[in-house]
Amino acid sequence: xxxxxxELTIEQKLKVLYExxxxxxxxxxxxxxxxxxxxxxxxxxxxxxxxxTRLTNIENEIKDLETKISDRRVQIENDNASISRYxxxxxxxRNNREYDNLSKEIEYQTLDxxxxxxxxxxxxxxxxxxxxxxxKTTTDIEERTVDLTNKRQDLDSxxxxxxxxxxxxxxxxxxxxxQIDDRLLTAFxxxxxxxxxxxxxxxxxxxxxxxxxxxxxxxxxxxxxxxKKIIVCEFCGRILVDPEIDRVK
Length: 249
Fold this sequence. Notes:
Elements: H1 10-90, H2 96-178, H3 182-194, E1 201-205, E2 208-209, H4 218-226, E3 231-232, E4 239-241
Parallel strand pairs: 1-4
Antiparallel strand pairs: 1-2, 3-4
Helix pairs in contact: 1-2
């Protein structure tokens, strides 16, 4: 990485580090803002697809039940036809045995008709529930699709809005990084990576570290205000600067 030819003073390095942190924090904010929406869009998209799959399954169940009802009705027609045929045959039987056999067949067909009618009632009740489920699922799909469309528009808008800002800030970080020697820049990036909130450089606030809020001794605060050396927090390892650092020329 190419550096400025003129070596910066410690005070100037601290100012550059502080500014680099501010720019990186802004980039983090922009990415966080856009970073939450893609996941929301994905979750909503998955939900809509899940609802569509559910709707397809419901429609298949409806078709299956309608087929079963139709088959049962055909079966009833066939059973009635068989009963009529058996009754005609009873008029021409030669003995009681034949008559009893035909009576048993009529009884069997009658029971089959009753079973078919029972199944038709059960299927019809199930169909009513499925049609209700279909209507609700269809409404859910319509509503969630509208929500998804709106959320996608929000995401597209934010991405378009933050893209230019992010690109500008990235260029600024590149310029700032050029001013810092490799060893210090590596340390800055390492601290930033390990910090929960991405803060590698923090100011002293109310006699405490602006990162972990641990108390800083008075003598150490004085050393920080002197800008003579780079001082890190003994507890969290962040680079400490005083709030007046941004006034350094």
